[in-house]
Amino acid sequence: MSRPIARVLALLELLQSGGIRTVAELADRLDVDERTVRRYVDHLLDLDVPVESVRGRYGGYRLAAGYRMPPLMLSDDEALAVLLGLVAGQRAGLMTATGMASETAAAKIRRVLPERLGRRLDAVLGSLTFTAPPGEPASPETTVLLTIADAVSRHRPVSIRYTAADGRRSERTFHPYGLVAHSGRWYVTGADPAIGEDRTLRLDRIAGARTLPGSFEPPAGLDPAERVLSGLATAPYRHEVTLRIQGTTEQIRTRLPAGVAIVTEPPSASGADAEIERWSRVELRAERLDWLPAVLASLDLPFVIERPDELRDLVAALADRLTDSARRMCW
Fold first, then answer.
1. From first to last of its 331 residues, what are the pLDDT tens digits of the chain?
2. Which end of the chain is more exposed for a tag (fewer CB within 10 A), N or C?
3. Residue 252 class from Cβ within 10 Å (0-12 exposed, 13-18 middle, 19+ buried)?
4. Cα separation of 328 and 112, whole Å?
5. Do the bridges between strand 279-286 and strand 239-246 make them parallel or antiparallel, or are there none, so unpaired?
């Protein structure tokens, strides 16, 4: 590669790092004079790279949004970060429904890498394993994700076509507060003005979304992630479970995370009452109860089952099995 072309590409890489770069700064970084920098910028403009000239005391050049992506210059660290991000996102199930996009993007990046760097990245990706199983494919449509994200940022209502867990389909107006990625799925939390309630919806169950006229004001101090986790913990499953556990929220969360259970600690005590062990109230809903006794045992904290009685029988049965195993002798 001739030296002028190499410097033009180096200029592009500097501009892609963001912000406004002064002519003097660019000349110093490229080891050329300021007139040559302006000539290099003209070369980029001839290639349809959207370089903007910013006037004023702190003016210079910056890369503007264009109608297409210009040639992308990545350092070794940046190339590794992009490829690992694509692999991790695909593994976690956090890609859009056009799942091939991540694979083709990774292939394009890998194809243009220098041989030396390509071998190093192949070594990383080839030796990488995950302890968690691949995420269940439940990806939203790209257009749905982008439309709702735009509505969230501009506080605009959207019209959506939604399929509920039981297969019922509906078209509704929705006021989206925020997007949340949790356990390999995308969720949107917001308000359904037709019923006057807040709802948490899975994005992969939204077949279409379009922005509506008007705007809304989201609640002050809103935490979308907390709302999604609380909504998952109170979803209408078959069993409603209420427990008292002698421990703090932090201790209980090690086995019963926020997306599974709601933990309420008693008010802080003072004086002699502070010495009394605190019992937290734990509420959760579940379709099945057979997994819960082992989780409660693994907490290794005293607990009381308020409801349902069926859970008491399951805990007692687990205790009997553990006792039998403890007394069994090897032969």
1. 456 788 888 888 888 877 888 999 999 999 899 899 999 999 988 888 888 888 877 778 988 876 566 666 777 777 778 877 877 777 666 666 555 667 777 777 777 777 877 888 788 877 877 766 665 556 788 888 889 999 999 999 999 999 887 788 889 999 999 998 887 788 899 999 988 888 888 888 998 899 999 999 988 888 888 888 887 777 778 889 999 999 999 999 999 988 888 899 887 655 545 445 689 999 998 889 999 999 999 999 999 999 999 999 999 999 999 999 988 876 6
2. C
3. buried
4. 63
5. antiparallel
Q: Nearest 5°: phi and psi at 196? A: 70, 30
Bridge partners, 54 (sequence order): 60
Q: Report DSSP letters for 251-293, one per residue.
A: HHHTTS-TTTEEEEPPPPP-GGGGGSPPEEEEEEEES--TTHH
For residue 209, the SS3 value is strand
Per the structure block, which two tokens stand in for 309?
């009685």
Supply the DSSP string of 153-195, one letter for each residue: HHT--EEEEEE-TTS-EEEEEEEEEEEEEETTEEEEEEEETTT
Q: In what side-by-side order are the strands of the sheet with 169-182? A: 197-202, 185-192, 169-182, 158-163, 206-211
Say what the alpha-carbon torsion angle 115, 117, 122, 127 is, to the nearest 10 degrees.
140
Tokens of 116: 């030396």
**Spatial contact of 193 and 211, defined as CB atoms under 8 Å apart:** no
- Helix then strand then coil, % of the chain, to nearest 5: 45, 20, 35
Here the tokens at position 187 are 């969720």
Residue among 254, 309, 249 nearest 282 (CA): 249
Establish how many alpha carbons lie within 13 A of residue 51's alpha carbon, considering only the half-sphere containing its beta carbon.
29
For residues 87 and 125, is the Cβ–Cβ distance under 8 A? yes
The predicted model scores a pTM of: 0.58
